[in-house]
Amino acid sequence: MQEIYRDEFWAQLNFWSKKISPCTILEIGGGTGDGSTTAFFDAINSGSKVYSVEARLERFQELKKKPVEALYGCSVSAGDYMTKSQVKDFYKTIKTTLNNNPLKVVLGWRKEELRTVKDLPQNVIKDIHAEFVFIDGSPFTGQKEFYYSVEQNPMIKIIALDDVNDIKNFHNYWQLCTSTQWERVWENLTLRNGAAIFMKKS
Ligand SMILES: C[S@@+](CC[C@H](N)C(=O)[O-])C[C@H]1O[C@@H](n2cnc3c(N)ncnc32)[C@H](O)[C@@H]1O
After folding, report:
1. What is the CATH number of the domain that holds 164?
2. CB of 137 sitting under 6 A from ligand 1
3. Within a domain: residue 2?
């Protein structure tokens, strides 16, 4: 797992979360809490609450030692995962860094994830209305997470996306770029698989 730690994206997560503090932050894909989660520690110190979701038990065990509300389970439901044919279509029609991996390997990741997440608590993010949302979970659930945590969320002010040049957040990134309701406040498309932050226009 590649952690976001003390790079340009980390600094921007830190800056924008402090800027709207105190607020509620939702981090999807917290990992062990030693990477991107630490960017929110300053916001926590100024009164913000961070919900951080993680599906792997061994990572969650570390995450829950951090000063966040650590949530164990699958962000959405196993039925919300992209289907095999949706993954194949994306792979064949949109050239992203995903194509650095053979399609067979990518489909294997999806199969393996589904095998493990179906037995976990489901829909962990559904009732959280955060003002700041960071999507960095499974490659195969980014659009559904966006739907529940951004589109269905009247509180949303800031959305941060990792892997915008990959299957995880490609469509979310372009939806926000072409929307009149959102302003892109930062991006770096050459940092790993690209990352960006958007602010809702008032
Ligand atoms: C790229 S890593 C996150 C890295 C983290 N943001 C950091 O910088 O330290 C993605 C994380 O999402 C978790 N994950 C994958 N699918 C998930 C799901 N459906 N629900 C919640 N977490 C998930 C993985 O176990 C993994 O720890």
Report:
1. 3.40.50.150
2. yes
3. no
Position 1 in a domain:
no
35 in ligand 1 pocket by Cβ < 6 Å?
Answer: yes
Is there a domain that residue 106 lies in? yes
Task: Give the number of the atom of ligand 1 that is nearest the alpha carbon of residue 54.
Answer: 22
For range 50-72, the mean pLDDT: 98
The domain tally of the chain equals: 1
pTM metric for this prediction: 0.98
Do the domain assignments include residue 3?
no
Range 4-8 contact pairs with CB under 8 angstroms and sequence separation of 24 or more: 4/35, 4/36, 4/39, 4/136, 4/162, 4/195, 5/34, 5/35, 5/36, 5/38, 7/191, 8/188, 8/191
Domain that holds residue 89: 8-200
86-128 tens-digit pLDDT: 999 999 999 999 999 999 999 999 999 999 999 999 999 999 9
